[in-house]
Amino acid sequence: MIRRGRAEGWLKLPISAFRPWAEWNGVSFNGIQIGPMPGFEQRGSTIIAERDLADGNEGPLMIVPRDLILSLESVQTFAKADQQLKEVLNSLDDFGRTARGAILVFLLMQVTISCPDISESTGVTNPLTEYIKFLPDELLPTLWTEEEQDLLVGTTLKPAVRAKLNSLLREYERFRIATKHIDWCKKHWWHGGENNDEDNEDDDLDANDRALEQGRLAFEDWMYVDAMYRSRALEFPGIGDCMVPCVDMANHSSGEATAALYETDRDGNGVLLLREGKLIKAKGEITITYGDEKGACEMIFSYGFIEDSMKSAKVIFLDLDIPHDDPLRAAKIAVTTAAPGFRIFDKGDCTGWESDFVWLVCVNEEDGLSFKLAQTIDGETELKSFWMDGDLEDTSKLRDLLQTHALWDVYQLRAVSLLQNRIEAQLQALNETDHGERNATIREIPWMLADRLRNLEMELLERAYSDLEDQKLVLLQSESVRRYLGIAGEEEDFT
């Protein structure tokens, strides 16, 4: 692997060298330092107050020059002076022109430059070549072992991790195919190009075994730079998705516990500011928010932790399938513009749900939904959807049309029953998986995170099931539902 080189840990620099590096590259600090919190060294480095800090008495706590911010714009600027970086970006076409694609390639180039197994000069060294050596190895679920990922069975994180790994493997394979004909990439990444004749883009994760034999640059390297970027990406005003050295050393806290916010100044520099009304004592931690609305699943997926104060899973997304005996199933799948599932969220005293997809599942031809083949202006044919003979251009708008119908309560009852059945199946999956005691091959952090996520999701799902039952009982008293039942018969199955 490129990032490991001849010995484990070669890539790392001590955090004691961080401030000299930052100040040398134009970062200014005001009353703060970066390092481990006293007594909490196991949590890694964070931003700490050197003295008492009070909003109104302080200017920016930190200013990061714009040319040190890693963004699509800065990668394109680096590529003007780095011919090898430019070659790789150009080979990737559209992917190399996205923020994610450009930044991942840039990070991989810095790892390659630092690899002790590559003696020849590769790429152009820049300040960020040293910066990545200060970053810890992120323990995101995509980097867990298969045994550790199996702890997630029954949670919504398990399918999310599987989908992400498949997506990363496809990216890696396309990256390999795009770069294997570049001479220096062939030499340093792909072992001279041997065994690279088949441009196989198989989505199956078993292809990882084949990919790892293709050269020095392994699939794990791609997963590593993805984790490095995904866990530290921030959206800055005027810049977009980027990595901001020094600011991204701040840990997360939500709500009133968030100490600082980040933005850009009029010169495009990144600045860290104490929140209004905040007072941080000396040796206190300066935190930012990674997103207060993010649920437990997303926090583990993107950042590898759950906030200690999190008492609820907050948000759960469950997939939802169209029954195989639905005669319109294929047509519905072909035209849908909605995510195939539904979102459950915690509203404090109760739960709520939202879904554009469920309405397409719960209506059919006898209700007024139909599909027809139509010819486009260029002579091609396309499948078009209709509701009550009116053109349904966007299936995500179906709910708005159903709301105006006399049978709206009937449609709601069908939807609630569908969601309740899906939640029941998820709860059963959670209850059927018991992992017993942790063995020595499973690390403590994945074990604890998986257990906590299971408990948080189970609690929210149980509340949601109960709330949907209440909604169902109310809908059953609706005049339109009662009339519909009287017409259709008492044994009508609304699922």
Total beta strand runs: 16
How are the strands of the biggest sheet laid out side by side? 1-5-9-8
Low-confidence stretches: 6-10, 193-205, 207-213
CATH architecture of the largest domain: Alpha-Beta Complex
**Can you tell me the CATH superfamily of the largest domain?**
set domain protein methyltransferase, domain 1
InterPro entries: SET_dom_sf, SETD3_SETD6_MTase
GO cellular component, one term: nucleus
Organism: Lepidopterella palustris CBS 459.81
Protein name: SET domain-containing protein
What's the quick description here?
The chain has 495 residues and is α+β, with helices and mostly antiparallel strands.
Q: What can you tell me about this protein's structure?
A:
With 495 residues, this protein is α+β, with helices and mostly antiparallel strands. The protein has two domains: 1-306, set domain protein methyltransferase, domain 1 (Alpha-Beta Complex), CATH 3.90.1410; 315-488. It is built from 17 helices and 16 strands. The chain has helices at residues 18-24, 72-81, 83-91, 99-114, 127-131, 146-149, 157-179, 183-188, 207-212, 219-230, 296-303, 329-335, 357-361, 398-403, 408-431, 444-475, 479-488; strands at residues 28-29, 32-36, 45-49, 53-54, 62-64, 234-236, 240-242, 260-264, 270-274, 279-280, 315-319, 341-346, 351-354, 369-375, 381-387, 390-391. The strands form six sheets. The protein has a four-stranded antiparallel β-sheet, with no helix packed on it. Mean pLDDT is 89; it is low at 6-10, 193-205 and 207-213.
